[in-house]
Structure formats: C-alpha cells, structure tokens
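so my prof wants the structure for this chain in the tokens format not the other one, which i didnt know existed until like an hour ago. anyway here's the sequence
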Amino acid sequence: MPSLFGDEPPQIVETYKGTDLRDWEYEPLFDSGEHPEKSHYVVTGDFVTTTEGSGLVHIAPAFGQDDYDIGQKYNLPLVQLVGADGRFVSEVKESWAGEYVKDADPQIIENLDGRGLLFKATEYTHQYPFCWRCDTPLLYYARESWFIRTTAIRDQMHQHNQEINWYPEHIKDGRFGNWLENNIDWGLSRERYWGTPLPVWACDDCGHQHCVGSIAELKSLGTDVPDDIELHRPYVDDVVLNCKKCSGTMHRVQDVIDCWFDSGCAHTAQWHYPFENKELFEQAYPADFISEAIDQTRGWFYSLLATSTLLYDKPAYKNCLCLELILAADGQKMSKSRGNTVDPWTILDEQGADAMRWYMFTGSPPWAQRTFKIDGVDEALKKFMGTLQNVYSFFVMYANLEQIDVLQDTPPVAERTVVDRWILSRLHTLIDGVRDEMENYQLTNAPRAIEAFMRDLSNWMSVAPATVSGVQKAGPDKQADYATLYEVLVTVVKIAAPFVPFGG
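here's what i got, hopefully its the right format
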C-alpha cells in the first residue's frame, strides 16, 4: 500500500473484515464476453494474503490454478477471452482485440485512465512463471485435457505407501505422504508431437469415443492397418476406424500421453505383460528396490504407485531409496550457465571411477544434500584405495621374495598367533556388519566400516611378526601371518567390490 500512496499516509475511513464483502456485486471494468446474470461478485478464498497487495484480487478461472479451483467452488463462469496464441480474441470489444496480451497493457491502462477508473499505474516486482528452457514468460491457460481420476484411489495409494520401506524413513509420511494427501486428478494428455499417442479415436459424425487396447484390436476395428504398424505419429494418425455407433469415420485425437505415464508403467510394460511373459512378470512384481532423486516423489515414484494401484491395487516396489541433490563446490546447484559444473570424464581419467564412487559412498548418506569437491575425491583415493594398494604391494613383494605359498602348509586358525586370530575375528565382524548395513540400505555406513577395518589392518601389520621382521624371520608364525594377510586382502576386495568394482 505505501507504494500506492507515496509519502502521504492514507486516511482510514472505515475498518471491516474481508468476509463482510462476501456476495457484494460490482460493475466489471470491461463488457466483453457472455456472462450469467450474476457473474461479478465478491467471494472468499484462503490463498489470498495481506502480506502481498491489498488482500483483494481479481479472479480469472481460465488463467490460474487457484482461480480455477475457487471458480469451481462458487460455480463462476469460465470466460476465455485469450486464444491459444496468447492474443485477445475477436469477441473483445476494445481496441486491443487481436493484440498479444502483454503488448496490450499500455492500451488497457490508457483506456482505464481515460474513463476515470484508474487510481494509479506503477510497476512492481512479483513472481512470474518462465519457461525453464528458453526463459520466455508463460501464460497460465485453461485447456481441455484428458485426465485419470486418481482422486478416486487416494485412500488406496495412502495404504500402499505404508507398505513401502522408504530411505530415509521420513519421506513416507513427509514429502511423499504429503504429495498423496494433496493428490489431484492426473492430467494425462499433452499437446505435443513426440510421445506415446493417446489411443483414443473419436467419431467425426456422432462424437463417440473409443480407447483401443491392443494392436490386435486396432487391426480389427481399422481399415487396411498394416501388420508392422508404427504406433507413433504421424503413422498412427493415418489409421481410420469405423464407428460402431453410427457407422461413421473415426480419427485419433491429436494428444499424446504424459511421459510419466510411460515410465510409471515400467512394472508391466518391461515384460510386455499381459500379452506375454506372465511368469516373468509375477516373479519380478513388485520390484524389490528402486532409487531416484528426491524430486521423483512427484514424478516416477508417484506414477509407479498410481498405475500399480489402478491396475493391481498393490504397490509397485518394496524399497525406495531417495537421492538428494549434489551441489557444486560453491554450494549452488550445478548449472552450465553458472559455470560451476564438474566434468566427470576428467575425474574418471585422472582419479578413476573407483575413487569417485568411494567418495560418493563414504562422503554422506545418499539422501543428504552435499557439495561435490574434487579434493574430496583425492582424499577418498588415499584413505581406502591408497591404503589397500600399499598393503597389497607389501604382501606381493615380500611373499615373492621369500617364495611364500599361502595356499600350502597354512597353519589352522586355532594355531595362529593372537594378533592373527584377532584380525581374522575383526574381519568376520566386518563381514557381518557390512551385510547388515547393506540389507538395510545404509550405503554410507558399510564402506565407512571397511575404511575403519583398513586402519585396524595397518595396526595389525605393525605387530604381526612377518610384517615387522620381513625376510629376517622364518617358521610357522611367518607362514601364518602371510596366510592371514592373504585371506584378509582377498576378503576385503570381495566386500568392497560393490563399491569399487574396477579394482583401482
């Protein structure tokens, strides 16, 4: 309000609540379009606040989600005076008919001012949608679309969500649970060229619509449908069906399907079920484990659950691990335009894939947001891979010098020294611990436990007779030490293989 009145404070004539204005009728600023007798009156809504503007806003149900929702609530008319090209339609009686909406702003301001209806015109900064690809200003616009009534299965999806193990656990009733709670019907169609065509044909004469469920059905209903029909545009658009209602001609509607529906049907489509592979489908469904970025709570995670609930009334997956964003070293989201991206090939060429993998696994849990620092990859390389390489090099060098055959004449574990039995006990504790962590999807705790073991192995080497005295000592203890070190190295490499599969 201060921006409207400037330095001179406004005079308060009367104070009352916004609800006191409910149902008051007002005269519209412009008289374009057809309206019911009662179309311009005050309604109340909880999305309007007093922190921005006056708390009183104009409602245009055809140009915004909140506006549309409140229009549905109060049965307000949906007046569309802008075409799909972003220009005012010819029904507009004023001079800006045919103009692009933003280009018409000066004319609208001049018109209002000339009629004495403008209090003040000023520019101000506010949030506005832009295309994420080309930064073009966007216009919210109501379009006819095809929907899946997912609101009808909201309760079932809530129930199936409780059957899923989420990592981290708070996603279940937090981010994903909240998304399900606010679930709306799924806008299925897209006005695009690329994508899976919506398999709906409409009659040119009577308007009858039919959804085709298979290639066989398409061939039975169509005329001259080739055996190798390409089910994408433009080829599928050439298929004409005969209307069973009026014997008229049916053409496919122009829409394609939301790509999230495609990916959401992965549980079934990957097996070409129900047309074949019934046993394979039943063995693999539901999936034991899926993983994706945290933003897929409203993408793939949701589409999988929705389609699975619609088709089978079951969840599509048992365990779901959510990955947080990896930020640049400056703490910002990586972006080519900011110049803060990291070339992975440089790291793979210089430090290696294993070093990068170990850094990613041990740095923080996958569901924790983190920054990516190349120095951290170097540190990870030294911490585990470097230690492992040093121990291995020591073993190979001295075992070859002394011609030790660790697979021959190896003393039983019970006859080995206390320090040998201790490191083997520590090794088996590690095996159990890593298995437990992995089975519980604690992918950071497991490799960190391996790192801790490597520190213990270094301590063991400082007291094991063979590793201390090298070639100076012979006998069963030395043979046992080498056999122990061999067993430990082979086992550690096996345990670490899921994290560093390339071996250096």
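also thought this was worth mentioning. Residues 189-257 form one domain.
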